Amino acid sequence: MKTELQVPSDIRFLTIVENWLLSSLEVELGDHVDWPRHSNRFRLVLAEAYSNVIRHAHRNKPDLPVMVRLEFKDRDISLEIWDQGTGYEVDNYNPPKPEDKQESGYGWLIMNRLMDRVDYCLQVDGRNCLKLEASLPDKSTES
User: Within the chain, how many helices (H) and strands (E) appear?
Assistant: First the structure.
């Protein structure tokens, strides 16, 4: 299954994007996975990625669309978030130190902890792509 959604760079659309993603996955997964556990995981990474596009990549450019693409094959999920910003050099990321009590900068760390694979490609056809991937176990094998 492949599906995509294009929405404005407006945080008010976050609920729409979350509902689209979670509904699409639930239709495909049914009761084959521990849905409450995984839905929270995907909700968090999507909220982080989408809000980063709005706050950073498309800052002050609400007319630029955000494209979210979902691909589901067997038990593998690929979620792509496309933006038209200047991009971010992932190599420059330094995770916050707990003792600094920093309020921001945790997104990359969170996404990498919750997903099996996180890739970021700068300027593919004039856009940037954050790709989040996960393989889901069958409900009978989850502990």
Answer: 3, 5
Find out whether 17 and 5 touch, Cβ atoms under 8 Å. Answer: yes
- Report whether 65 contacts 83 (CB < 8 A): no
Sign of CA dihedral 56, 62, 64, 69: positive
CB 86 within 8 A of CB 28: no
Measure the CA–CA gap between 79 and 77, rounded to whole angstroms.
Answer: 7
pLDDT tens-place string over residues 1-31 = 999 999 999 999 999 999 999 999 888 887 7
Alpha-carbon Rg for the chain in angstroms: 15
pTM of this prediction? 0.87
Q: Give residue 8's Cα distance to chain centre.
A: 16
Rounded Cα distance between 119 and 130, Å, is 6
φ/ψ region of 62 (left if φ > 0, alpha if ψ in -120 to 50, else beta) reads: alpha
Q: How far apart are CA 97 and CA 127, in angstroms?
A: 31
